[in-house]
Specification:
mainly alpha, about 70 residues
């Protein structure tokens, strides 16, 4: 198992050092679409902002009513 792992890592390292010509670089496409990961991250950011607003609002309300528990 261990020699196979080293061979896989060595293969990845050799592939990562590959250089591309200008024609190959121009032919690269992709990465411009809306993905599920992008939508999920936007929803999580929106929920975080809403939760932060609730936290601030609750803090203001508790400080005005002097109810801290």
């Amino acid at each position: 198992m261990l020699p196979q792992l080293f061979m896989a890592i060595f293969t990845l390292i050799s592939v990562s050092k590959m250089t591309l010509t200008n024609q190959e670089l121009v032919a690269i496409t992709g990465g411009a679409g809306i993905t599920a990961a992008l939508i999920t991250s936007i929803v999580k950011a929106f929920n975080s902002i809403i939760d932060f607003g609730r936290m601030i609002g609750s803090s203001i309300r508790r400080s005005k009513t002097k109810n801290y528990c």
